Amino acid sequence: MSLKLATTVDEVREAVGRARQAGRKVGFVPTMGALHAGHLSLIRAARVDCSFVVVSLFVNPTQFALGEDYQKYPRTLDADVEACRREKVDLVFAPAADVMYTGEPLTTVHVAKLTDVLCGPHRPGHFDGVTTVVAKLFNIVQPDAAYFGRKDAQQAVVIKQMTAELFFPVEIVVCPTVREDDGLAMSSRNAHLSSDQRAQAASIYAALEAAAERVARGERNVATLVEQITADLEAAGRCKIDYVSIVDPETLQAVDRVTGPALVAVAVRIGSTRLIDNLLVDAGSVASNNGGAQPTGEAL
Ligand code: AMP
């Protein structure tokens, strides 16, 4: 079947309704477009599980705080639709902002506590924007399963919580982080890096891996691990570290010692580009989040 491009809620409902009537399982991959191999891995995971795959391309204004990069966020609609066609996506939903936000928005979906940590304090309103738009998209698409990347580990935990608490009948599938050859997590924002900054950005994954190795060699003290990651990041060049944190992978609350699975998460600004990454480590064994690796953090 050929790809259908929808821009309105009615078009999506009609196409998904027909697929459902035909007994097809509906898989959904929400994105902000500028598709890269990380997004494609989610689409492929959906393709394996589901016989009707929907991808949304929507740069959601409400998840950008004032002064963030909403205006300069890359927009590559034609190339994205072509990539979806190659991946045999059934339906692309690329709405204009006034389709998703009709009139003055009075309703917000807020997940507490899980959004007070890591990126939350650095991006006021960001997670409210994410959960509100994902709730809207879930209601529009009504998928059986939705696919998210572990690269945005906090987002995945927050979405899982929202889905469970609001009884959305949607299975949340979290897929491994896809990386460049030097380990940098693929991100639409990498396009903003100069070549020097791009080289420096590889230090993020290197610092996370070094921490995982220290854990594997028996280091359990979180303060020591955080200090070493910070030193590694700073040694690589000028950057502004928003946070280096080691948290429980399910509750996202800080831990003092690594006693089981733990999420090592960082957010770093190189120039004006903010990059995030994380690695799941385990006191028993090192859990790699590299692309292609088996997902080990099922809790995520
Ligand atoms: P975005 O377009 O950045 O909002 O991302 C859309 C989805 O793709 C989210 O679920 C992200 O976590 C996921 N994603 C982004 N980058 C990667 C990556 N490098 N590997 C795996 N998933 C990713």
Would you report the number of β strands?
9
Average pLDDT level:
94
Series of secondary-structure elements, N-terminal to C-terminal: EHEHEHEHHEHEHHEEE
Cofactors, ions, other ligands: adenosine monophosphate
Runs with pLDDT <50, length 5+? Answer: 286-300
What's the main sheet like? 6 strands, parallel
* Helix-strand category: alpha/beta
Q: How would the global form be characterised?
A: globular
Report the radius of gyration as a whole number of Å: 19 Å
Query: How far apart lie the N and C ends?
Result: 33 Å
Folded structure, characterized:
This protein has 300 residues and is α/β, with parallel strands linked by helices. It has helices spanning 9-21, 37-49, 77-86, 97-100, 126-141, 153-165, 195-216, 222-235; strands at residues 4-6, 26-31, 52-57, 91-93, 145-149, 171-175, 240-247, 261-270, 273-282. The strands form two sheets. It has a six-stranded parallel beta sheet with strand order 1-4-3-2-5-6, sandwiched between helices. The two termini are 33 Å apart. The structure holds adenosine monophosphate.
